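INFO batch 0412 | record 1 of 1 | parsing
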Amino acid sequence: MSSSIGTAGGFADEPRELRDEDSFDTDALQVWLHRHVPGMTVDEPHVRQFPGGASNLTYLLSYPDRELILRRPPAGTKAASAHDMVREFTFQDRLRPVFPQVPEVLALCRDESVIGGDFYVMERVPGVILRGDLPAGLTLDAAHASRLGGSMVDTLVALHEVDVAAAGLADLGRGSGYVTRQVSGWSDRFRRARTDNVPDFGAVMAWLDSNQPPDVGYGIVHGDFRMDNLVLDPSDFSVTALLDWELATLGDPLMDLGSAMAYWVEAADDEGMQMARRQPSNLPGMPTREEFVARYCDARGLSSEDWTFYEVFGLFRLAVIAQQIYYRFHHGQTTNPAFENFWMFVAYAEHRCRRIAGID
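INFO prediction complete | emitting tokens
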């Protein structure tokens, strides 16, 4: 592509040194890997940590001839249904043959004595991952930003069009009633994670409960579809891999789209919404939330007219995720300073949900 995207090859996602609270016994890890991953040497890896990790943690294992990714849960209290390494591994393993943007998973460990919990390893997919703002020296003009945004829509459409039975995933879902389960489940999670410095979301949860539509489809729900979970080809910024399948399940794909749009912060959004921006969706040329939804619905033959419920749900769900993370910080289960002010966004999200829903 032209120089308008800069020298993208120099912007591969870079890990950092381990935080003390997230370290583990690399000797024990390497012994296990040598026994369970074909082609592994006995050499101990250089272990570094990726800068995300608000929920499950992601590490880079560097060897002279290969690089692997390790995924594991964080230490501390967590929701009973979250951080399931077995499910995350299984979902990707079965999906990859019909959705090639899934990285190749290699081995799953359920022996907690190795590094203190379940984990799995997979091949690293090289490429560019965009977080927050574009890194210094990388530019993306309006035409290419528009193409990237469109590619994201098309990737989500392709995922939602996968035949779950043909992919062998049918046993990982619970059937109809997904919308109802989501409203109830995320409401319960918020109540358990609430701290005294955020609103109670009572009116918002009541509105979601009384305004929920019936399921309009049944397919794969990624659960965390945003730009920093995509690996991009540095030559043309096409999507080569979709990462972080921690929340993947089967259900109504429109709920997945609503969740994705909660992260899609536009340049014109107010200061409160900007707190949630973790991707350069604000660049000139990027589609607006309305344009993203319209393109998706047009591709799948759906109506985008009644979008309010999904918009409110997506924002509420994001607020719950932020509150769960903040709860861990508030109670000293993590010292990561990035989480210290998450409560401020949670309070803002309650106000925004009420405004969008027309709640007095």
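INFO post-check: The first strand starts at residue 46 and ends at 49.
INFO record closed
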